[in-house]
Amino acid sequence: MKKPLAYRMRPKTIDQVVGQEHLVGKNRIIRRMVDAKMLSSMILYGPPGTGKTSIASAISGSTKSAFRHLNAATDSKKDLQIVVEEAKFSGQVILLLDEIHRLDKPKQDFLLPHLESGLVILIGATTENPYISISPAIRSRCQIFEVKPLSSTDMQKALNRALEDKTDGLGELPIVIDESALLHLSRSSMGDLRGALNALELAALSTPPNENGNIKITLAVAEECLQRKALVHDKDGDAHYDVISAFQKSIRGSDVDASLHYLGRLVEAGELTVICRRLMVIAYEDINFGNPNAVQRTVSAVQAAQMLGLPEARIPLAHAVIDLALSPKSNSSIEAIDRALQDIRDGKSGDVPKHLKDFHYKGAEALGRGVSYKFPHAYEDHWVAQQYLPDSIKQAVYYKPAVTGKYEQALSSQLKKRK
């Protein structure tokens, strides 16, 4: 039985990895490990289909190391013992362990000494936050790297490679793919390359040749095989981003009907992840202190939508959109942090005032650290006037309250009192 296209197209060397430049690009950490042949155990975490297994496979191929693939949830301690015995025989084994967050204590205890000795190079893969879901014993012996969703450009590069590859890909087939179909596969998979490749293979194998003997993959075919509709059938593919942009701008502009219209387009296209992420951005960027309760309600609505999935997710999503569109607006938070960041990037930072520096070590007092610090809780209203910013920017003002919304008016009043 022929293996799926996504499996066949896994990179065989680090140079073939698509995306993840922050890890495998020139002079980046995993690339350095491979070039120096100085591997260490690691945990890769990120959404499904973003390349965790591919990176592990590429590391093995580039270093010519033995490679084994197990699942922490379904494979037994006996399977781990077999891998360790092989490592003793060959010198070292790279072990990709899927769902590492489900590794139980007996398996952990067995693996730990072999990670310490370097006999087994563990590459744990998980979609969960490793700082929460993975035991400290394993975490302390691994470097932790986030694997990010692939960009549309990276996705197109990988899809084109699969279409051209005559050995492992679809290059032997007479495929003619419309640009709009390729754009849809690359953009509507939301960074999940495995899903896009599976849809491409299904389209290629299920579409009969036309009168010219070509397998024509149109946008309609791509929509059906991916089970996501394109937002509109435009030539340049910009509609995907145009609708998302219009969605945020309509909420920011307090037009509730336009906001619901663009939400409907995104729901119809199956863009649940995009909607949830964008609503969270809108809540904190555009509503902010104008209606902080609406911000928290949006977080709850997004969580409910993710648990329900489409089509039911449309209900809490509509609730959040109406709430945000009709809320007082404020962008004071994003403007405040951007002002602070601009000063830092312009070199305006300076030394931390001595009375704020850490003094929990021997000799700190002699250096004048923390000596004149005033503990706010010891004063009336738990506040006392003292300098917190460095001398060079002690007059800097970053937060400038908006005048909309009762909550921010209260913040403004408190700020004036403290000033």
Describe it.
There is one protein chain. The protein has 419 residues and is α/β, with parallel strands linked by helices. It folds into 4 domains: 5-146, P-loop containing nucleotide triphosphate hydrolases (Rossmann fold), CATH 3.40.50.300; 152-226, Helicase, Ruva Protein, domain 3 (Orthogonal Bundle); 239-325, Zinc Finger, Delta Prime, domain 3 (Up-down Bundle); 350-418, post-AAA+ oligomerization domain-like. The chain is built from 19 helices and 7 strands. The chain has a 5-stranded parallel sheet with strand order 2-3-4-1-5, with helices on both faces. The chain has a two-stranded parallel sheet with strand order 6-7. α6 (105-117) links the parallel β3 (93-98) and β4 (120-126). α5 (77-90) packs parallel to α6. The longest helix has 17 residues, at 292-308. The model has no long low-confidence stretch (mean pLDDT 90).
